[in-house]
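Table 4 source record.
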Amino acid sequence: MLRILGKASSINVRKVLWTCAELHIPFEREDWGSGFKSTNTPEFLALNPCAMVPVIEDGDFTLWESNTIIRYLVARYGGAQLYPAEPMARARVDQWIDWQAAELNRSWSYPLMSLVRKSPDYQDSAALAVGIEQWSKNMQILDRQLQSTGAYVSGEEFSLADIPIGLSVNRWFETPLKHPHLPAVSAYYDRLNQREGYRLYGRNGTP
């Protein structure tokens, strides 16, 4: 059985859990990370030298880095409907997965630490305003994309890209800030809620 190491509140662990739900992959999960087992122990560092969750063990195969893990799972467990083999269709999916990691993920960093984590090191009002502006601009990009497709991030059908993006949308709505009106993002949020995996691991109130 697939073994998942990482606390369930982690957005990156939730990517893996949601992917497992979509593909009906049975798994066992262990709590590792802040507040649980330390990822800085020799035991964990032998699995991931970066000391980050999630890590999976699939038999004697070990893998870390969440986006790599979800790509592996769809390849290993018959997820072609989420991650098409045709090069152009796959590139569209990869484009949005990578955009989430490189652009969207970075833009929420300061607002999340300030408004949700309440970190005393992230209470500069000017830096917070800049962070919120950058985050809002990226969400406007997403809104325009969803208006274009009319459904999901990479097209008319749900794909692997919707897992990291869908979790990001949950984080957006669960962070206490003034949200601009983004009708396509709001409709997308409700559309994703029709999926059991999203109700369990995405739209569950955990930013």
